[in-house]
């Protein structure tokens, strides 16, 4: 017997909550999230540690050095409802925010503490329906 096809949503699918659903919960989650970064996207020493840039990873802009500012970007993505369908624990696996012409994807790296890393996406990777 053949296994049924997996019914997993696409990773870059935005699931915007209905107005009466989860908005207060998202606002509370947003307060508990934090950007921690990842050395895998850095070609320079940073608050994320010594650089360990992977060959297949997008490079972070070296001018992005303020962890608190990037955390606010992450929280803005939550407040706009730019979250993915997939959840790990109580946090969405993905959150997106746009700055200028660049869309950044936040990826959950610690589901208990709500810690995220982030990286820029290529234009062909932008999720549909992104609010700015």
Explained architecture:
The protein is α+β, with helices and mostly antiparallel strands and 132 residues long. The protein has one domain (23-125). The protein is built from 2 helices and 6 strands, in the order αβαβββββ. The strands form 2 sheets. The protein has a 4-stranded mixed beta sheet. The radius of gyration is 15 Å and the shape is globular. The model has no long low-confidence stretch (mean pLDDT 85).
In short:
By secondary structure, this protein is α+β, with helices and mostly antiparallel strands. 18% of the residues lie in helices and 20% in strands.
Descriptive keywords:
132 residues; alpha+beta; two-stranded antiparallel ribbon; 2 helices
Give the structural class. alpha+beta
Described by the principal axes of the CA atoms, the overall outline is globular
Helix count equals 2
Alpha-carbon Rg, integer: 15 Å
State the strand order across the main sheet: 1-6-5-4
């Amino acid at each position: 017997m053949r296994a049924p096809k997996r019914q997993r949503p696409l990773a870059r699918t935005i699931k915007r909550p209905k107005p009466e659903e989860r908005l207060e919960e998202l606002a509370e989650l947003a307060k508990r999230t934090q950007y921690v970064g990842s050395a895998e996207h850095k070609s320079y020493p940073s608050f994320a540690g010594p650089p360990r840039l992977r060959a297949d990873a997008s490079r972070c802009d070296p001018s992005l050095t303020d962890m608190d500012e990037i955390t606010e970007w992450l929280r803005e993505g939550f407040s706009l409802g730019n979250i993915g369908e997939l959840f790990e624990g109580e946090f969405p696996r993905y959150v997106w925010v746009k700055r200028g012409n660049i869309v950044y994807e936040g990826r959950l790296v610690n589901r208990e503490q709500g810690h995220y890393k982030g990286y820029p996406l290529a234009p062909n990777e932008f999720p549909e329906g992104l609010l700015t």
